[in-house]
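Z., the sequence and structure:
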Amino acid sequence: MGRQSLRKCWRYTVLLSQTLRPIKRGVQEVLPPSLTSTSPQPPLFDGTTRLYTSYICPFAQRVWITRNYKGLQDKIKLVAIDLQNRPAWYKEKVYPENKVPALEHNGKVLGESLDLVKYLDANFEGPSLIPSDPAKEEYGEQLIAHVDTFTKDLFTSLKGDAVQQASPAFDYFENALGKFDDGPFLLGQFSWVDVAYIPFVERFQTVLADVFKHDVTEERPKLAAWIEEFNKIDAYKQTKNDPQQIIDLFKKRFLVMYILSNI
C-alpha cells in the first residue's frame, strides 16, 4: 500500500486527538500539552531540534519510541499538535504536508515516520536500531516493505469478520518472529523493524480483545513473547495509550460500520 492509500488508515488515528493520552507510569517525561489553532508558534530554526508529534498517532509513535530509546529526550523537544484543531502555522510555516510526525533539525523539516526513524538512528547518539548483520539487514528490509500491507489488512478486517480477517496478518507476524533465534524480536534483537510494527499491534490487540473477545496471542507464542518483552522497554511504555481510550475510539469510528456490514 502506497503512502496515498495509507492516509485513509491514518485518518482513523487522528479522531478524538484531545481525548487520548499516554498512560502515566512512574517517573517519566512531563509531556507538553497539544497545540491548537489558538496556540502561538514555537520558534523555528532557532537551533532547537523539535519532533512534531501527536500522542495518539501510530506513525508518530514510531519516531517517539526511537527518540526515547536513544535517550534523546533532552536533545529533541516534543511539540504535540492537536490533529482535530491544528494550528494554521503548522502547515503554512513548518510542514506543508500538515501531518505528523515531522522533525525540525539543522534548518530543515523532515517527514515520513520510517524515514525519521532511520534519520535519528544515523544522526544522533545512542544505541543503534539498525542491524549490522547483512542477513538481518536484508530480512529487516523485507519486513519493512510488508508493514503497509500488514497495516492495511488489519484496518480492512474491521469492516467484516475482524477475527477471521485479521488472523492471516498475525499468522504472518508469528512466522516472521521465527527467523532468528537470538532474541524474541523480529530480528532477534530489538530493532527499527519492531518499532515499525508495534503501534498497530498495540491498537489491534486491544480492540480485538475487548470488542471481539479474541486474544491475538492464542496459539501464537512468539507474538506473546514479543509483546511481553516490548512492554518491558521504558522507551515504549512512555508512549502507550490508555487501552480504554483506544477501545472508545474504535467504537465511535468503526462499530456501526461493522454491525451494518454483518447484518
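Residues 139 and 258 are 35 Å apart (CA to CA). The mean pLDDT is 89.

Let me know what you think.
H.
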